[in-house]
């Protein structure tokens, strides 16, 4: 009876924790490699060294310019995608009908359609419009890839909004733009913020399409990392991976703390 | 009255123009080029089916995608099932362990696996120092390495999907089953599993579709030796400029993904799960 319980309950739980370890532990390997005292990818041999983190801050090594390029593109992408996404989600929510539903499917399709197909199409289009390897070209592509996320985030916020608020405002004589700007928008701020953040992250991480539409002029951080992984020698790669890992962990912990505080305030 | 609706529709115009001009049009052009480059007709598709290299790439893609899907869904179900049975504190820790890889860049994850699995990597060094093996094992730049990397990439998605689905199941049904004398194993096979089938189907669909067209992890962990469709297409456009091959293969991939998604959406349970997802 006891053995049966171990097999039925204990074993699956043990396997689950092993799998959680499989997800999390391998990522941590970048930390010791970033601290290596050698100038090739390896674990520290005779002590640890911070020189590879210092290399990240060295302008001539190319990591810093790439980070700034990516940050600038991601900010522009977040601003444009959020503006387009808010306008679309709010308009579709208020208008209804076949056109917004159809456009919604088209706007969300980049989440399902393999990005390599989109890359093939954009290489052709940008070559014709001379936008290959240009900031404008990269930002526009990132906007298209970020729009599904902003539309979903803002749509989720709107689905909690009471349609009668709009009816009340209109019956009191508010003009359409007043209804959108002063009644709907203030009520969906969390969704808009979430959408903007998701758009920023999507652009910051985008590699598949960027790889084909950029060359020497626009080197985003993921592109720089991609090239560096193929060379597989420079420990600065592990240092940048460590930085990204730390930022992710800090952001997740901060989010958990904020959520806990909000829960406590509600109680 | 009409004024309000017109304004609302006008608001949808900018995003729609972007979606049509910068998404639908370039993809439609890929489809068109596959039929016209270099001359009008289905010649590209005839040579595609006769091409032995393409056949090998398609077989590798199917093999890796099926293995990845089966392993990912099975492992993710075990994890999601364990998480919903944990106390609130352990659940938070487990979800944290899922969310960190979920948000970390796919490049960082591929790089971690290369560091661990390559011939002079962490795992081989450790095994050799422990005396388990005398020559390093080939763990990466082959089918094994690609599959490990893909499963690792897909698992957080699948766990979060299955976790959302399993959390929605009414626990009183299990209480009822237990009070009627069902054993834990019976409750699992006859109650939990049937009720979580929509979630399993959705996770299977997503993982399989993502795997079919995945470029980054197969390209980095396969390094040209385990060649999948997306990387093969990328070689055609960036080094050999074979637009006929790239566009016709892209069209086939789009067609297959479209058919899979369309077929899946015909099932009411899947449609419900898919529509309910954005509000989680």
TrEMBL record, chain A:
GO BP: transmembrane transport
Domain (ABC transmembrane type-1): residue spans on this chain: 67-258
SUPFAM superfamilies on file: MetI-like
Family indicated by similarity: Belongs to the binding-protein-dependent transport system permease family.
InterPro entries (alphabetical): MetI-like, MetI-like_sf
Entry protein name: Putative ABC transporter, permease protein
Lipid bilayer topology: Multi-pass membrane protein
Cellular location(s): Cell inner membrane; Cell membrane
GO cellular component assignments: plasma membrane
Keywords linked to the UniProt accession: Cell inner membrane, Cell membrane, Membrane, Transmembrane, Transmembrane helix, Transport
Matches recorded under CDD domains: TM_PBP2
UniProtKB/TrEMBL annotation, chain B:
Keywords of this entry: Cell membrane, Membrane, Transmembrane, Transmembrane helix, Transport
Annotated InterPro entries: MetI-like, MetI-like_sf
Annotated localization: Cell membrane
Topology with respect to the bilayer: Multi-pass membrane protein
One Pfam family hit: BPD_transp_1
Gene Ontology CC terms: plasma membrane
Source domain of life: Bacteria
Transmembrane segments: 64-84, 96-119, 139-166, 187-209, 245-265
Protein's UniProt name: Opine/polyamine ABC transporter, permease protein
Organism: Mesorhizobium prunaredense
